[in-house]
Amino acid sequence: MNGGDEGAESAAQASPPQPLEWKFSQVFGERTAGEEVQEVDIISAIEFDKTGDHLATGDRGGRVVLFERTDTKDHGGSRRDLERMDYSTSRHPEFRYKTEFQSHEPEFDYLKSLEIEEKINKIRWCQTANGALFLLSTNDKTIKFWKVQEKKVKKIADMNVDPSKAVGNGNVASSSNNVSPKPYLANGGSPSKEVYAHAHDYHINSISNNSDGETFISADDLRINLWNLEISNQSFNIVDVKPANMEDLTEVITSAEFHPTHCNMLAYSSSKGSIRLIDLRQSALCDSHAILFEEQEAPGSRSFFTEIIASISDIKFAKDGRHILSRDYMTLKLWDINMDSGPVATFQVHEYLRPKLCDLYENDSIFDKFECCLSGDGLRVATGSYSNLFRVFGCAPGSTEATTLEASKNPMRRQVQTPSRPSRSLSSITRVVRRVDTNGNSFDFTTKLLHLAWHPTENSIACAAANSLYMYYA
Amino acid sequence: MAMVDEPLYPIAVLIDELKNDDIQLRLNSIRRLSTIARALGEERTRKELIPFLSENNDDDDEVLLAMAEELGVFIPYVGGVEHAHVLLPPLETLCTVEETCVRDKAVESLCRIGSQMRESDLVDWYIPLVKRLAAGEWFTARVSACGLFHIAYPSAPDILKTELRSIYTQLCQDDMPMVRRSAASNLGKFAATVEPAHLKTDIMSIFEDLTQDDQDSVRLLAVEGCAALGKLLEPQDCVAHILPVIVNFSQDKSWRVRYMVANQLYELCEAVGPEPTRMDLVPAYVRLLRDNEAEVRIAAAGKVTKFCRILNPELAIQHILPCVKELSSDSSQHVRSALASVIMGMAPVLGKDATIEQLLPIFLSLLKDEFPDVRLNIISKLDQVNQVIGIDLLSQSLLPAIVELAEDRHWRVRLAIIEYIPLLASQLGVGFFDDKLGALCMQWLQDKVYSIRDAAANNLKRLAEEFGPEWAMQHIIPQVLEMINNPHYLYRMTILRAISLLAPVMGSEITCSRLLPVVINASKDRVPNIKFNVAKVLQSLIPIVDQSMVEKTIRPCLVELTEDPDVDVRFFATQAIQSIDHVMMSS
């Protein structure tokens, strides 16, 4: 909430910014026609770091893949040779494959007879130091802290890979054909710096760093724990919504995030569609929230699905810290933390699906957890949808911008008229649902775009369609 | 390797091993750094080894940590204090790494070296280093810089001093909370080296900035600064500048800051002196005792005795005691527990009358608390209150509490009370003990949990030590020996354990006449576990009884056991016999 941002906002109020013209930038791990998607390659988390110079993705196979930006000049000495290469002088962010490592492995909890998937649920970047990158990754139970550092290789690799080939179009899923030609490597193979385990009885849905640079939270269905990055053997429970009797359970935590600048504030969302903002200063155990953000449902509109579609799948603070964006099944909502009576803006994402809720319930699609993101300037919001589509809305007052894009090389193609791939490639997924709506558009409920991230400073979006990472700019 | 010149060999090995893929080898060679330096001689250490180490900063954190530590004591190997500055470059690099413990160690080593360096060298080498780190690109360098100012500052010329102070001011306003935290936690050390004139101006303004930082984690550390700075300032300045800050902190929005105040209050009171404490800090402390956050009340309750000691009894009775009364029925068991662990200490401060009138009811209600930890904490500090109100008053209420704890369903609680029994025994005296507690001690020998039975056996030994063998002969031994006939072998084993513990206390005569026959008898037990424990006990009795007794009674019994069908019994019996032979050989 600094002066500069407010200035930008008031300027925006005068005349809403023009809708953006989105263009395709890059794709990593694009499938060739007819190629089957391996379950383990499906991307399950995307996150830009604070500077926007790095991008991380996590997949269901427990791998974390890092990309680095190539179009900026201020990379420092170690990347001097990069600059010598002939890069296009385009102004939009471009990334190249940097490294990858196996973050989580499948495990079995013998005490509870539970399989623990290796799937990466969330990735969060931490403060960079000395050019080493730090990030947190989590699966359902265990959070790990990674340091990725460029190290001098004692023996120069004798393979002579043409650097230009390694740039821009690497395959996310495989590493062998993408060896970095430079005389350093990332320490992806070494064990993680810290492992924060055994603190969650339920599945972890979020992790979030504090602005103090030394703590972070992890949230599962019923509890939120606070950790110090340097202490992995203890955490403090700060929110516990578990009722004394589990039969009384009516609401679970779906997502949690720290305020970007105020170290004491954190917001969490619930399956009932409410967001709670709590102040860690008030009490050690913050079960009683500070402010509750909730929209009153219209009387009489209640149905069997009301509560299911109200469940918030993701919340994000805007960079200014004043707004919170939330995604439920049907809409995106933008909240002002100074106004708890209702959202300042609501964007319809899936309104056309309302007549089909029954089908969606039957094939479990109604429980899909779509993520949402805000642009760095806070003027636009984006979220994913089915058929590999994602939508961008202008949220500046007066803006009517509402763009639908497809995660493909031709994003403005919008709705797909024919299946892009033969359906046999979906054989691994049992229920294939493909319906044509009243406008004649088909929606493929199995190709859903759940994960996406907006570059912190530029108009650039990275989104995941199955195993492919698509990047767009405007 | 054969080609290498003889004198080059050690460094060649070192460099070789430092490049080794095996981290253990690299660690070993770093740990041998001083040996290698000695082999190389001072000059080559300066010219070859140190520059080499300066470049070798890309290693595992563990190796870097070892290097940072070794370099701190390296002055003798580089040719003494006049060459100490050559050690600065490698440590400077280590001050910038990402791993906190490596940086901390490097800073520690730099401080150690800096405190030995000559003044002119400090100006030529050390201060530029501090300035470079403070202007470092990454926060890691700036974090490290904060810890070096107190070494650099005293020997700096005036103009540099001014610069250093302004650099420190900048560090306290750094964008990174990590840097501000480091600046806040090192402020006290730095302030101690700054001249009084600047202390009141520069340092106090830095301090005021930190106390208003919007990061809770920075303000937390500023609380500690209050005590450190307070000790440096003149009393009236302290009251004028530090006291308002403390009072403000005690009402901070963040419970973590208030918790720090509660925790540090005693030190803070020392800093501001007794008079302002009475005037201003008593109300602040009372607020903390009534804070709505349990964590803060826990910290405050834990300091109640220490705080009362600096007050006069009237003030304590008037202001603090009412709060203590409230806390004794606090909704949080942890608050009550914290209170229970210190409340006994208040008795000497308040004096006998106030204790009996005011403190005793609180104390009795805590003794009946539903939460065992609270009761245990009271009992553990019994000696303190005993001195003031005497045991008679206590014993009536004490006994039910002890009996209840002794039968608590959590074995850890039972264990805790057993451990206090010898203390209680010494406080309460033989007479009281015999009537009430003796039976309990025997009962524990038959507890379901091994740890309790074991502790009970130990307890008997300590009681025997406390009251002497004669008393034990009357009140412990008969009951214990009776239990050797218990149908359950685990209980018989406990008795064997008790015998082996009691024997050294009881002395040779009683051991021979009373204990030994029982043990010998037990060697006929039908359970092998008992039999090999008999062998073990007999072995432990060898040094206690006479040589003739060993030969006459113990050896035959052991010989018999060596022919036992059970392998373990034979093993321990053989071991015991060997031990007898060994004693005979040496005597």
TrEMBL record, chain A:
It comes from the Eukaryota. This is Serine/threonine protein phosphatase 2A 55 kDa regulatory subunit B beta isoform. It comes from Citrus sinensis (Sweet orange).
TrEMBL record, chain B:
This is Serine/threonine-protein phosphatase 2A 65 kDa regulatory subunit A beta isoform.
